[in-house]
Write a structure and sequence with these properties.
Layout (H helix, E strand, L loop, with lengths): L9 E7 L12 E7 L10 E9 L4 H4 L18 E11 L9 E7 L3 E4 L7 E2 L6 H5 L4 H13 L7 E4 L5 H12 L3 E6 L2 H9 L5 E4 L5 H8 L4 E6 L3 H8 L2 E9 L18 H7 L2 E4 L9 H13 L7 E5 L4 H10 L5 E5 L3
Helix pairs in contact: 3-4, 3-9
This protein binds NADP nicotinamide-adenine-dinucleotide phosphate.
Pfam families: ADH_N_2 (PF16884), ADH_zinc_N (PF00107)
Protein name: NADP-dependent oxidoreductase
GO molecular function: oxidoreductase activity, acting on the CH-CH group of donors, NAD or NADP as acceptor
Length: 345
């Protein structure tokens, strides 16, 4: 049994100080040294001591003002929400005990009060470390896995295009499609990411959107059209894919990162008649829609990763102070793999 933290234990926090305009700046966050949570736990709550934080692009959407009823808005002065792994230190939930190692939707602080039933909280298998739990066996990998299989409904032989392919969710989607017998082309920024996708992930071809014309390359690589497009980016990349879909193709809307810093709703594709005449399905999803099937997916991902069939890389930054700065690497592409801040040092 781990010792219970004292009320005098410092609880470092990153709070939202003001709503960002464009890319979040250091001044948009406030560093606070609060104390260990003092309000008595309610039934169904636990306290988690966070060890590793996953930097997820959609946290930037949550920093926007309220108004979109489908996703949360972090209040000014509130600790920034985000996925994390850590250890339960107190529990009033029947399924969680002090000492349990968990992954959950937490917040950027040492000690967070969590309602496991509302935050995708799961106990980690013994052989999954804290970094792996938000990395290769974390929510982004599950996103790639369910998005390409269930929403993309891939079939062996499908011609698949993945944007954000060198990223955390995208690289798993692309490789799961390869494992499913598809021909897979990835879109990524820069020669190093493209090399990794070709040599380590085994993709069939790559488009470097920073140095190549996407439309030209898509039409060269997909003369008979795209069967499945897994999109992390939106904007003109989505438009180019829509214009090159095959009949009865599926577009998987995973993310729209190109618009997250715009302070405006991202635009959709312009020619929806193509979807009608092509019988093309475009569907969004959240990884949480598949939460009741995470265990099976994690078994697959673990077997593939341990047997060397799933390449993955984690970009781990160190120290609590690093969280806001690290977060912005998602938007300039300087993260190489799943972006994690480890404070278990
Ligand atoms: N639906 C869900 O449940 C769910 C769950 C998790 C994540 N997501 C979404 O999945 C996407 C990827 O998230 P992730 O956590 O895996 O991050 P990631 O792909 O590991 O990192 C973000 C990457 O996006 C690319 N990027 C950033 N700005 C861009 C822009 N303006 N145009 C084109 N590419 C840009 C960069 O790669 P390059 O260097 O290649 O440009 C960057 O490295 C995001 O849209 C996220 O919101 C959705």
């Amino acid at each position: 049994m781990m010792p219970r933290p004292q009320m005098t234990t410092i609880n470092r926090q990153w709070r939202l100080a003001r709503r960002p305009s464009g890319i979040a700046k250091r001044e948009d966050f406030e560093y606070v040294e609060a104390s260990y949570p003092t309000t008595p736990l309610q039934d169904g709550e636990v306290v988690v001591n966070n060890y590793a934080f996953l930097c997820a692009p959609t946290i930037r959407n949550w920093m926007d003002p309220p108004g979109n009823s489908l996703y949360p808005s972090i209040n000014l002065g509130q600790v920034i929400m985000g996925p994390a792994s850590g250890v339960v230190v107190e529990s009033r939930h029947p399924d969680f005990s002090p000492g349990d190692r968990v992954a959950t939707i937490s917040s950027w602080q040492d000690y967070a009060v969590i309602r496991p039933d509302q935050s995708m909280t799961r106990v980690l298998p013994d052989d999954h470390g804290f970094i792996e739990a938000v990395g290769v066996f974390g929510l982004n990998s599950l996103t790639g896995y369910f998005g390409i299989r269930e929403v993309g409904a891939i079939q062996s032989g499908d011609r698949v295009l993945v944007s954000g392919a060198a990223g955390s969710a995208g690289s798993v989607a692309a490789q799961v499609a390869k494992l499913g017998g598809c021909n897979v082309v990835g879109i990524a920024g820069g020669p190093e990411k493209c090399r990794w996708l070709l040599e380590d992930c085994g993709l069939d071809a790559i488009i470097d959107y920073k140095s190549e014309d996407i439309r030209t390359r898509i039409s060269e690589l997909f003369p008979d059209g795209i069967n499945v497009f897994f999109d992390n980016v939106g904007g003109e990349i989505l438009q180019a894919a829509v214009d090159n879909m095959a009949e009865f193709g599926r577009i998987v809307l995973c993310g729209q990162i190109t618009g997250y810093n715009d302070n405006a709703a991202p635009e959709g594709p312009r020619n929806m008649m193509r979807l009608i005449y092509g019988g093309i399905r475009m569907q969004g999803f959240l990884v949480g829609h598949f939460a009741d099937r995470f265990d099976n997916a994690l078994r697959d991902l673990t077997e593939w990763e341990r047997s060397g069939r799933l390449a993955h890389r984690e970009d781990v930054r160190s120290g609590f102070a690093a969280i806001p700065g690290a977060f912005n690497s998602l938007f300039d592409g300087s993260n190489t793999g799943t972006l994690i801040v480890n404070i278990d040092a």
